[in-house]
Amino acid sequence: MGKVYLTGAGPGDIELLTLKAYRTIQKADVIVYDRLANPEILKEAKDGCEFVYVGKADSHHSLPQDEINELLHQLALKHEIVVRLKGGDPLVFGRGGEEALHLKANGIKFEFIPGITSAIAVPEYAGIPVTHRGVTVSFRVVTGHEAPNKKHSQIHWENFKTDDTIVFLMGLHNLDKITKKLIDIGKPKDFPIAVISKGTTPEEKTVIGTLEDIWQKAKDLPTPALIVVGEVVKLKEDLSWFEK
């Protein structure tokens, strides 16, 4: 019986992979990877390593989550080192907790290997700090894509009224709804917002706008995309470095 390493692949740039993740990947017998993990990482695996793709897109999941959970269980019964490779961090909307609970219930050992979350790294590559002295002292990270079968949203929009910076992950297709919600709770229509597509990769592109006009400006950007709301967006003009 083996062990499952729930591993963060970082936000896209392969050089943002942690040293611990890199070393574990080199020893892996099988790697179960998702759509947002940079496929270049797989080249670092040893000869004979098995690869299993379980990526999820908006309209297509290669495997439902409960089947992924059981897949990890079964692989751990056959292999010594199983790496579950996830884009960003395994516990920031990565379903790593659910997978770990399933493994624990079946007597399988597991370990979390943190990854650099896109919630911080992607704005940083775009020249947008999520905190900045004199501008903001806090930030909130929110899913921009709740499960469509939920009867009630778990997002408490009223709590966002006084937030300094808000980062929405996986929210491009709901951008229009997100901006309308923020305006409804009292955010000014001209409040600054940025949408960053394919952050930390050579295809990175950032669109800047306001809550009122960003939907029209950014709706055709390719995914994955991240949304940043707050006065810190204005700092991009001076702090942009990667896209240059």
Kindly summarize this structure in a few lines.
This protein has 244 residues and is of the alpha/beta class. The chain has helices at 19-27, 65-78, 96-105, 118-125, 175-184, 214-218, 236-239, and strands spanning 3-8, 30-33, 50-53, 81-86, 109-113, 139-143, 165-169, 192-197, 205-210, 225-229.
State the major sheet: 5 strands, parallel
Order of helices and strands: EHEEHEHEHEEHEEHEH
Mean pLDDT over all positions:
94
Number of domains: 2
At CATH level 2, the architecture of the largest domain is 2-Layer Sandwich
Main-sheet strand order equals 3-2-4-1-5
- Overall, the morphology is globular
Task: Please identify the structural class as seen in this structure.
Answer: alpha/beta
CATH evolutionary superfamily of the largest domain: Tetrapyrrole methylase, C-terminal domain
The fraction of residues assigned to DSSP E strands is 15-25%
Write the CATH fold name of the largest domain.
Methyltransferase, Cobalt-precorrin-4 Transmethylase, Domain 2
End-to-end separation? 49 Å
Uncertain residue ranges: none
Portion in helices: 10-25%
| Gyration radius over CA | 19 Å
